């Protein structure tokens, strides 16, 4: 309970996940975070969601509930979110889907 997790990529990016609780599932190599989860990235994203899950062996964080937050382009909400690196050692991508609403603020 009251878990803080940090993910560092080979490219130097960092992600922190703060959650009320986390359940590790060794059989599926996943962690399930619950309870008002905050995700911050060194690339400028500050996200909030209720139930993201993360792979334990590769960068793959997926929300199982709607997400809201701020990022380099502005403030947004989305039904789902995926943070991953499609190519090992490659650039990290944020993918927002299912009813994305963005308030674009280029000065942010």
List the total number of helices: 0
Proportion in β-strands: over 45%
Question: What order do the SSEs take from the amino end to the carboxyl end, as H and E?
Answer: EEEEEEEEEEEEE
Which regions have little confidence, pLDDT < 50, spanning 5+ residues?
Answer: none
Biggest sheet, open or closed, and with what strands and sense? 7 strands, antiparallel
Distance between termini? Answer: 33 Å
Structural class given helices, strands, pairing?
A: mainly beta
Fill in the keyword field for this structure:
108 residues, globular, six-stranded antiparallel β-sheet, single chain, mainly beta, seven-stranded antiparallel β-sheet
Walkthrough of the structure:
Helices cover 0% and strands 58% of the residues. It is built from no helices and 13 strands. The chain has strands at 3-8, 14-19, 21-25, 30-34, 37-41, 46-49, 52-55, 60-63, 67-71, 74-78, 80-84, 93-97, 101-104. A seven-stranded antiparallel beta sheet has the order 1-2-5-6-9-10-13, with no helix packed on it. A six-stranded antiparallel beta sheet has the order 3-4-7-8-11-12, with no helix packed on it. A hairpin with an 8-residue loop joins strand 11 and strand 12. The mean pLDDT is 91.
List the helices and strands and how they pair.
Blueprint: E1 3-8, E2 14-19, E3 21-25, E4 30-34, E5 37-41, E6 46-49, E7 52-55, E8 60-63, E9 67-71, E10 74-78, E11 80-84, E12 93-97, E13 101-104
Antiparallel strand pairs: 1-2, 2-5, 3-4, 4-7, 5-6, 6-9, 7-8, 8-11, 9-10, 10-13, 11-12
Short description:
With 108 residues, the chain is mainly β. Helices cover 0% and strands 58% of the residues.
């Amino acid at each position: 309970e009251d878990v803080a997790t940090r993910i560092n990529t080979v490219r130097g990016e960092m992600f922190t996940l703060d959650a009320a609780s986390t359940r590790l599932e060794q059989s599926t190599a996943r962690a399930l975070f619950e309870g008002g989860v905050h995700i911050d990235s060194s690339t400028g994203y500050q996200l909030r969601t209720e139930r993201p899950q993360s792979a334990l062996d590769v960068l793959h964080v997926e929300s199982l509930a709607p997400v809201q937050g701020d990022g380099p382009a502005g403030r947004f909400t989305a039904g789902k979110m995926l943070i991953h690196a499609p190519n090992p050692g490659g650039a990290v991508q944020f993918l927002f889907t299912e009813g994305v609403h963005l308030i674009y603020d280029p000065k942010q």
